[in-house]
Design a protein that fits this description.
Elements lengths: L26 H11 L7 E6 L2 E5 L19 H13 L7 E4 L1
Parallel strand pairs: 2-3
Antiparallel strand pairs: 1-2
Protein name: Calcineurin-like phosphoesterase domain-containing protein
InterPro entries: Metallo-depent_PP-like, STPP_CPPED1
Organism: Chaetoceros debilis
Length: 101
Amino acid sequence: FLDGFSLPYDLVTGNHDLEGLDEFDTDEGNLQAWMDCFEKDKPYFAKQIGERTLLIGLSTVRFRDSPHSSHECHADDEQLEWFDTIVEEHTHEDGWRICVF
C-alpha cells in the first residue's frame, strides 16, 4: 500500500501493532512478525532527511506485558541506548537537528 505513494517512508510500531492476541502468545513474537513483514532488522530507525537533519523513529515494544495499561508506550533499554548513541554522534553544537517520532 505505502509503496504506491512513490515516496520514501519508514515505519514504527504503536500499541495497535502489537494487538495480535489470537495470533501471538508474546509481544516478542508479535514484534518479530511485524519486523519480518516489513523486512526490518529493528523496530526503530534513524534517517538523514536534510542537511544535518535527522529523523528518528522509536517504537513501542510492549503490549501484553505492560504493567499498567496496554495503551502505554514502551521503548526498551536496547532502543534507548541506541537513541543515546545517535544523539551523542549528532550534536547540536555540530549543527544537527533531530526530530523524534
